[in-house]
């Protein structure tokens, strides 16, 4: 006898899409991420532009137009992560997860359907937000001829990677929501993972830079740069290969743990 497929059908996917777009928190998180990312990016790049007249040649060479455009994503990523958490934890809080499992007993199909819907939405929105932040940021820098273009080496890759990173944070939050099943606890764990691990990595730097290089904060720095970091801070920034590998590991670990946890009793 052939084992039942875990691939979700159209009905399951449609149901998860309706749930996601009907929850008010989805709209709130998306709007918050957009507002923070755009406002902070514009403020940072406008500050660069206003100081262009007094910049030395060395200052211009050290300017990071991409990094300043994406500075708002440091905070916007939390909104994406919370979106992932709430996409799965809300049903546990309300008890509606039991109804979902009654309608679709194959819990793996439910989990996969949720992951596909949340992943597709976050990848699309993250990519749009990354390009929007880039375009607005470079528009602020353009009058002073400080901007970079998508055709410049490494720029398109960095912009696409910014969207990819927002998708990854969303799915890590999704995994945490499935693992902990409690929104507040999962969000606290997400905050710790995104930001509170940074000082721990700095403490361990005297032993090895590898822990710092595997932190999400530094992975984001690596993949959203058009050019590698230089100087002493570069010791904590992973290479592109290590950064993408590390991001993939985060996704595999948290999504796998979430799948295992959701297969337990609701």
Number of strands: 0
Structural class: mainly alpha
Tally of structural domains: 1
The geometry reads as globular
Helix percentage: over 70%
Mean pLDDT: 89
Low-confidence stretches: none
Question: Order of helices and strands, N to C?
Answer: HHHHHHHHHHHH
Number of helical segments with 4 or more residues:
12
Major sheet characteristics: none
Give the termini separation.
28 Å
Radius of gyration over all CA atoms, rounded: 20 Å
Report the portion of residues in β strands.
under 5%
Protein name: ABC transporter permease
GO molecular function, one term: ABC-type transporter activity
Keywords: Membrane, Transmembrane, Transmembrane helix
GO cellular component, one term: plasma membrane
Q: How would you explain this protein's 3D organization?
A:
With 266 residues, the protein is mostly helical. The chain has one domain. 74% of the residues lie in helices and 0% in strands. The chain contains twelve helices and no strands. The chain has helices spanning 10-22, 24-50, 57-62, 65-69, 73-94, 97-103, 107-141, 155-180, 183-204, 210-213, 216-223, 240-262. Helix 8 runs parallel beside helix 12 (240-262) and helix 11 (216-223) packs across helix 12 (240-262). The longest helix has 35 residues, at 107-141. The protein is globular and about 65 Å long. It starts with 9 loop residues before the first helix and ends with a helix. The model has no long low-confidence stretch (mean pLDDT 89). This is ABC transporter permease. GO terms for molecular function: ABC-type transporter activity.
């Amino acid at each position: 006898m052939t084992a039942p497929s875990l691939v979700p059908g159209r009905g399951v996917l449609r149901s998860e899409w309706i749930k996601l777009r009907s929850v008010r928190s989805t709209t709130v998180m998306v709007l918050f991420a957009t507002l923070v990312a755009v406002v902070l990016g514009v403020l940072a790049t406008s500050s660069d532009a206003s100081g262009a007249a007094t910049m030395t040649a060395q200052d211009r060479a050290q300017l990071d137009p991409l990094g300043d455009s994406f500075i708002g994503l440091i905070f916007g990523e939390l909104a994406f992560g919370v979106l992932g958490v709430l996409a799965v934890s809300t049903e546990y809080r309300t008890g509606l997860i039991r109804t979902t499992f009654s309608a679709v007993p194959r819990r793996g199909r439910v989990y996969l359907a949720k992951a596909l819907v949340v992943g597709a939405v976050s990848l699309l929105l993250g990519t749009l937000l990354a390009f929007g932040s880039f375009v607005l940021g470079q528009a602020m820098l353009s009058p002073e001829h400080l901007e970079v273009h998508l055709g410049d080496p490494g720029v398109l890759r960095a912009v696409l990677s910014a969207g990819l990173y927002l998708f990854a944070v969303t799915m890590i939050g999704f995994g945490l929501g499935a693992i902990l099943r409690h929104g507040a606890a999962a969000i606290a764990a997400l905050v710790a993972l995104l930001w509170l691990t940074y000082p721990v990595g700095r403490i361990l730097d005297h032993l090895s830079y590898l822990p710092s290089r595997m932190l999400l904060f530094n992975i984001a720095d690596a993949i959203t740069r058009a050019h590698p970091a230089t100087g002493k801070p570069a010791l904590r920034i992973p290479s592109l290969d290590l950064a993408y590998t590390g991001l993939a590991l985060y996704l595999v670990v948290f999504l796998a743990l979430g799948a295992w946890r959701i297969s337990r009793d609701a």
